[in-house]
Specification:
By secondary structure, the chain is mainly α. It folds into two domains: 14-130, Orthogonal Bundle (Arc Repressor Mutant, subunit A), CATH 1.10.10.10; 133-216, no CATH class. It is 49% helix and 10% strand. The chain has eight helices and five strands, in the order ααααββαααβββα. Strands 3-4-5 form a three-stranded antiparallel β-sheet, with no helix packed on it. Strands 1-2 form a two-stranded antiparallel ribbon. The chain is globular. The relative contact order is 0.09.
Length: 217
Amino acid sequence: MDIQPETPWDSTPDISARIVTAIGRIATVLRSGMWEVSTAEGLNPAQAEILQLLQHRTRGVRLSWLAKQLSISAASASDSVAALVSKGLVRKARAEDDGRATALHLTPQGEQVAQRLAHALSFADSAASRLPPAQQVLMLTGLFKLIAELQKTDRFPELRACLSCRHFEPNKYPAQEVPHHCALVNAPLPISFLRIDCAEHEPTDPVRQRRNWEAFA
């Protein structure tokens, strides 16, 4: 005999599980939108993501860094980069910090393609922008807190986020409405201005970075 639940809600998954499910469904929609545009550009998803990762990185990046960002092997990343080089979208040069190492850069043509790829998810951007401003800030705050927890698992790739930047000063004004501060521009830093990817980002040391994320969480 089947055992009936005591209430209609007994079989409802935990909120945490539903959050993960919702993020997964959104990620599927975003991947579909990116796939559509990248296919039109003659790229596979990995190649499209590499172009996006290289965008706004004037100093170039190492192949090993790309592999970590994409959670793929160095060999797979190398194959994707080789294809992009052959398409004239990526170029190789000596790394600024080590003349023996190779850094990857976008070519002018690659920059144009990356800009077009950036518009692939404009439909999602528009949807998010229609949320009330206060709700957008709450959602951004929640996502930063979730990233902070994921950082503890060592499964989340490195970000050029405010919280991992040496210019970020958390809770410098604890009694004020805007507690954080950006030393680069010497101004209070509202949560609504926190960046996931900042071109002016300068990594802080691992100990301080972990402390920043933990303070935010």
